[in-house]
């Protein structure tokens, strides 16, 4: 770390992405006393943060610290920073990262809190960032993941997350920057596992919403979470993740939260589908992003390419994109060939 980082009050932070999670995290950092520059995509979001100290579009009801400086100037926000947090939806990660390429200082630590797998390339966000920002060495990159609804973090409800980096010092630095008495941060070295856990759980959360929308019971949901975790783990093992990550915060932790929490956008999309709405109708009413919708496509194609069995993800994909009825999908899952529970690998 640079000399500047030895004194917290000198640490300069940029946050890229003014959705609910970006706003909650940027405000956490600003409230800790870090001067935080905050890139928001929409001009009206900047204007009303300046006027009301609130992000009424994406995180209504929370006062934002005076230490948070909203801006529409992406380059200014990422320039000369010790730490840049990127938290845009995964489908705009590539275009956003390309715009900041060449403007990241040598010492800057990049933290990514977005969760998703890019369509087409099947890259997680670390892969997209490695391609678009080759000037950022792996040692300066970390992923922040785990069970964390933005509104609950903004309300300062005790929340526990994990920061994964190949470089332990980077993970420890990021841990120190984000930790508060209501936001506990663990370190981890498994970037792949943390990203896959955080991304694929969104697909399983859509499935969980679907079964609740259909009015199926607690047995069904417990089975879905357990078998959903088995397929996340199977994909993770194939891609070199540490299996232990999936029993941690970025694995079972985030999966349980998103499959059971009414605040989840992914669960909510699924629930509405289970109740009979079409995906098109649901998405037309949403300004926020349910990452699992696009990630379902990536997981479907990637798992087929790799030959990894992921039946729940596949049926969720067919419901979303091929008009398969949810009840038919459940029947298909329940009548697959019978097998040994632990035949995983
Ligand atoms: N909200 C949460 O509780 C939460 C928690 C953990 C992780 N995440 C992850 O954080 C990421 C961001 O989600 P969010 O919840 O902060 O956003 P959001 O769904 O609340 O809002 C969507 C965001 O996308 C932005 N946007 C739209 N078009 C854009 C473009 N062309 N370029 C750049 N930005 C554009 C909007 O300005 C807005 O900031 C996602 O990957 C999500 O899975 C969210
Ligand atoms: O609201 P969701 O479904 O995008 O989930 C938000 C977070 O990923 C929960 O950790």
TrEMBL record:
Record-annotated Glycerol-3-phosphate dehydrogenase NAD-dependent N-terminal domain positions: 12-170
EC number: 1.1.1.94
Boundaries of every Glycerol-3-phosphate dehydrogenase NAD-dependent C-terminal domain copy: 190-330
Localization terms from the record: Cytoplasm
Catalytic activities: sn-glycerol 3-phosphate + NAD(+) = dihydroxyacetone phosphate + NADH + H(+); sn-glycerol 3-phosphate + NADP(+) = dihydroxyacetone phosphate + NADPH + H(+)
Domain of life assignment: Bacteria
Keyword tags: Cytoplasm, Lipid biosynthesis, Lipid metabolism, NAD, NADP, Nucleotide-binding, Oxidoreductase, Phospholipid biosynthesis, Phospholipid metabolism
Residues that hold sn-glycerol 3-phosphate according to the record: 115, 146, 148, 201, 254, 264-266
Family: Belongs to the NAD-dependent glycerol-3-phosphate dehydrogenase family.
NCBIfam families registered for this protein in UniProt: PRK00094.1-2 (NF000940), PRK00094.1-3 (NF000941), PRK00094.1-4 (NF000942)
Function: Catalyzes the reduction of the glycolytic intermediate dihydroxyacetone phosphate (DHAP) to sn-glycerol 3-phosphate (G3P), the key precursor for phospholipid synthesis.
Protein name stated in the entry: Glycerol-3-phosphate dehydrogenase [NAD(P)+]
């Amino acid at each position: 770390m640079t000399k500047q980082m030895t004194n917290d009050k000198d640490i300069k932070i940029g946050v890229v992405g003014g959705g609910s999670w970006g706003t909650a995290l940027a405000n956490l950092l600003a409230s800790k006393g870090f001067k935080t520059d905050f890139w928001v995509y929409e001009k009206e979001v900047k204007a009303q943060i300046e006027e009301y100290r609130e992000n009424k579009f994406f995180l209504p009801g929370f006062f934002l610290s005076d230490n948070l400086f909203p801006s529409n100037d992406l380059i200014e926000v990422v320039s000369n920073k010790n730490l840049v947090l990127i938290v845009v939806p995964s489908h705009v990660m590539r275009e956003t990262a390309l715009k900041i390429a060449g403007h990241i200082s040598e010492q800057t630590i990049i933290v990514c809190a977005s969760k998703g797998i890019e369509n087409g390339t099947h890259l997680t966000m670390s892969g997209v960032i490695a391609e678009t920002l080759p000037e950022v060495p792996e040692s300066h990159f970390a992923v922040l993941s785990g069970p964390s609804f933005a509104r609950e973090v903004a309300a300062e409800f005790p929340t526990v997350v994990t920061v994964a980096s190949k470089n332990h010092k980077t993970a420890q630095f990021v841990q120190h920057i984000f930790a508060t008495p209501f936001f506990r941060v663990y370190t981890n070295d498994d970037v792949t596992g943390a990203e896959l856990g955080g991304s694929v759980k969104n697909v399983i959360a859509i499935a969980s919403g679907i079964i609740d929308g259909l009015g199926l019971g607690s047995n069904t949901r417990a089975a879905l979470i357990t078998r959903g975790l088995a397929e996340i783990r199977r994909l993770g093992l194939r891609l070199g993740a540490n299996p232990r990550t999936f029993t941690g915060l970025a694995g079972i932790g985030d999966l349980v939260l998103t499959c059971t929490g009414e605040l989840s956008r992914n669960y909510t999309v699924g629930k509405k589908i289970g109740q009979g709405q079409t995906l098109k109708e649901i998405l037309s009413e949403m300004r926020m992003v349910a990452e699992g919708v696009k990630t379902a496509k990536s997981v479907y194609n990637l798992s087929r390419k790799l030959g990894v069995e992921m039946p729940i993800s596949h049926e969720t994909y067919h419901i979303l994109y091929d008009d398969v009825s949810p009840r038919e999908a459940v029947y298909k899952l329940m009548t697959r060939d019978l097998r040994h529970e632990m035949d995983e690998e």
